[in-house]
Amino acid sequence: MNQLPERTDAVVIGGGVIGSSIACRLAEAGVGTVLLERGALGSGSSGTTAGVVRTYFPGKPLISSLAVRSLAAYHALAERTGIDLGLQRIGLLVLFTEEHQVQDFRHTQAAQQAAGVDVELVTAAEAARLNPLVDERTILAAAWSPEAYACDPAAIVRGYATAAQQAGAILRTETPVTGIDPDGRVHTPAGSIRADTVVCAAGPWAGTVAAMADVHLPVSTYPVDMLLTDTPSSAPSDPLPMTMHPSSLRIRSWGDRILVGMGRPAPDETRQAWLQRVSHHLGTAFPALAGNGLETGWSGDLDVSPDGMAFIGRDPSRPFLYAAGFSGQGLCQAPAAGEIIRDLVLDKESWTDTSGLSTARCLSGSAETG
């Protein structure tokens, strides 16, 4: 393994979609950048998702604005690099089963549209037309956002990593960080490197990495299992949209099968009991899937914030920046997060007000209690 350089302008810790996007943006802005990844590129949360980039995030117009900007950046990345990111428009359908959900949508629709999101309220019958597996008798209405795309997360990471290297960034895989000194010296088994700025984009390990720098990043890990089931013969040949049910159940087409997500067993719940619970919700929400067997697709951990919104910002007392706690939505926000971190490093005004993304929103009321 090549020795690390003695110093650099910025060290980015984490080689998933967030870290590779940040490294690309920094390097292209002329910032000397070294990215350190504990395993292989994209081996953390980036490989755990349902592989969908979307722009509509109910109740979170700020996150939606990041997602709108990120989707445009993905299209530009594909054109610029020639790398096929697997982008295929499938749309997003969010089902509503209670009147207050419909009213919540109506109250926030204008803010979503102001953020650039294409989203509308559709009837139960229209929702069933968009996804024929939906039983219109079980829902009141739905939100429909056509700008949602199936994608290849590994190709996205590869695209940003390649662009970062072409811009001069140094990428080191199989290089876990073992310590961070107050002066910005970052230690690894391959040696140490001093950085003017340290950027934590370590996904499920973000809290641990931040603690090495004596920074409190209030993120936790949330385990998820993605399941697969057979597509019924009654389903259309076109891919089904990503469809989200209030129970937290979500499905979408996955090749000739259907991908199913609903977290993972609770701490006091057996896997068999959890699978039965998923199967029950699946059969209730999508009757054509009732009785279908469920098989394990893949599993992993997500980095989660207390309110489900990402932390993107700077520690006030040291040159330590963070982009973590994306709560399973990092794929949809990575390009915008890269821009925000780049602007923070350059001490440049960002394209949007990012104050609401700081950890201060979760730490201000709990600093005394820890």
Automatic annotation (TrEMBL):
<dbReference type="Pfam" id="PF01266">
    <property type="entry name" value="DAO"/>
</dbReference>
<protein>
    <submittedName>
        <fullName>FAD-binding oxidoreductase</fullName>
    </submittedName>
</protein>
<dbReference type="InterPro" id="IPR036188">
    <property type="entry name" value="FAD/NAD-bd_sf"/>
</dbReference>
<dbReference type="InterPro" id="IPR006076">
    <property type="entry name" value="FAD-dep_OxRdtase"/>
</dbReference>
<feature type="domain" description="FAD dependent oxidoreductase">
    <location>
        <begin position="9"/>
        <end position="344"/>
    </location>
</feature>
<dbReference type="GO" id="GO:0016491">
    <property type="term" value="F:oxidoreductase activity"/>
</dbReference>
<keyword id="KW-0560">Oxidoreductase</keyword>
<dbReference type="GO" id="GO:0005737">
    <property type="term" value="C:cytoplasm"/>
</dbReference>
